[in-house]
Amino acid sequence: MIASMDDHRSRRMSRPSKSPSKLTNRRALAMMGGVAVLYALPCLIAGVLGGRRWLVTVGVVVAITGVAWLLCAHFSREEVLRPVHVRYLREFFPAMAGYVVLIMVSGTWVPRMESVPARVALAALPLLPIALLIRAMVRVLRDQDELERRIDLEAIAIAAMSTAFGFFSFGLLPLADIGWHVGGPTVAIWVMPCLFAIFGIAKPLVARRYRDHE
Amino acid sequence: MNNHVRELRGEQGWSQADLAERLDVSRQTVNAIETGKYDPSLPLAFKIAALFGRPIESIFDPGA
User: Fold this and answer.
1) pTM
2) Which of A6, A145, A146 is closest, CB to CB, to B15?
């Protein structure tokens, strides 16, 4: 009885006053979603007005991600973030901010550069924040608790297998000669967004298996 | 595997969040252990046993 009353109390409020960090999952997701949507809007406007397809694509992807984060913030239960996840966000945000800036710089300036080494350096520039993002993900994977790690690893396995399956299928379809001609670089660029997107969908589904009476 | 974590936590008057903080795990992990959705690793099971001051076999049993 005491335990069930406790659970009820804990369901309503997860002791924010006792935690060293006041940042909650909902607040973090809402912040990330808001920033993403705010970033996507000028991309979409500039892309449509300037007739730049890549900018429209970036805007659409970022907008979808932002809306997904806002929906997650709306539907998830308020929980105070543990220090390991606060650290992850501290590493994630600058890396993501760096990426969105550098992808714009790269996309805008690479076609205008004459020198090949400068073009290569500029084209590869967005890889630096992506490497920092991967580092942040590996660190959080190592330092979170065992169930969180298990859920993340299961979701990563599902995402990796689904992405590989999807791209392999995509590679086989041209054999049917149905008029699809997509360039290799375009396909390669979409591997990572697909991986992250499927991970984002798979994680809550995997986590559901470990939830009960919440 | 069955366990008595929920009862023991109730005896102490702790919420799931309180226990999670003491074990340095998330509240969802405590909930998953209590409801039998997740069996903790040996180190975490020993940590739980040490926290409640009981032998591990009196908290966890493999069930029938």
Assistant:
1) 0.80
2) A6
